[in-house]
Design a protein that fits this description.
By secondary structure, the protein is mostly helical. It has one domain. It is 71% helix and 0% strand. It is built from 10 helices and no strands. The longest helix is centred in the middle third of the chain and has 34 residues, at 135-168. It is globular, with a radius of gyration of 20 Å. The chain crosses the membrane at residues 28-48, 54-70, 91-115, 135-164, 184-200, 206-230. It holds the Pfam family DUF7530.
């Protein structure tokens, strides 16, 4: 496979590849991410003597972020393994819209957390960190939450672009099969985020938004998967000989 250049990758992949003087495989980068975040969560939990639920909640968020990283690599590998119309991978990887969506999700969550959420009883931060959350605990929490929100933004964007692709183009059977797998990876990607629901159960607004987000991704990515299958071309010989050329 040809070397992937900047502008052809998700922002997450670009960051991993851009560290000067450091060359690590993407699976190793995910392992480092998981280890560093989990160590930070455990240290904060141990130093401040937080309840066990706090440790479990932090670990769940770290695992969701790591699963998101794995799924992003799986989706990108499936997409890049096929010969596709340039517009699709360019929108998926090079637009950075997933970052914009992540910022919107993150700001919305923080706005709720420090306004309406802070007035509910018990408030989420108070339940996890006590009435006066330590600065270090809040810092680690916000850092991990950003990672989760970035994965949520990516799931949104991947599902929307997938549906656009399935509506606009037709593919031969092998290509459609790979794209269907990519769509189902997006569904799995979103489903993993439901692990967080038990830890925000006292916040009905967050629960409703999180579950609604997952259902929306299921609907959009699932519709894309069905559509790309129904519109698949059965004639894999189109004069180009590779059986992987899209048709509008």
């Amino acid at each position: 496979m040809a070397k992937v250049e900047f502008g052809e990758t998700w922002t997450y992949e670009s960051i991993v590849s851009a560290l000067p003087g450091i060359r690590v495989s993407k699976p190793l980068a995910i392992g480092i991410q998981l280890a560093v975040f989990e160590v930070a969560v455990v240290v904060v939990w141990a130093v401040y003597g937080f309840p066990t639920e706090t440790l479990f909640a932090g670990t769940a968020a770290v695992v969701v972020a790591a699963i998101g990283s794995v799924e992003m690599l799986r989706i990108s590998r499936l997409v890049r393994s096929e010969r596709l119309p340039p517009a699709y991978p360019r929108l998926l990887f090079g637009s950075s819209i997933e970052v914009v969506l992540a910022v919107l999700a993150y700001v919305a969550f923080l706005t709720y957390l420090f306004t309406t959420g802070a007035q509910e009883s018990p408030a989420l931060l108070e339940r996890l960190f006590g009435p006066e959350p330590p600065v270090l605990a809040v810092y680690v929490t916000l850092l991990v939450l950003w990672d989760v929100c970035y994965r949520i933004g990516t799931a949104w964007w991947a599902s929307v672009v997938a549906l656009w692709r399935s509506v606009r183009y037709r593919f031969d059977e092998p290509t459609a099969r790979a794209l269907r797998r990519a769509d189902l990876e997006v569904v799995a990607f979103a489903t993993a985020q439901l692990v967080l629901v038990p830890f925000v159960r006292s916040q009905p607004v967050i629960v409703a938004v999180l579950v609604g987000h997952v259902l929306a991704v299921w609907l959009v990515a699932g519709s894309s998967s069905v559509l790309v299958t129904l519109r698949a071309r059965t004639d894999t010989t189109d004069g180009h000989g590779d059986g992987a050329v899209a048709r509008e």
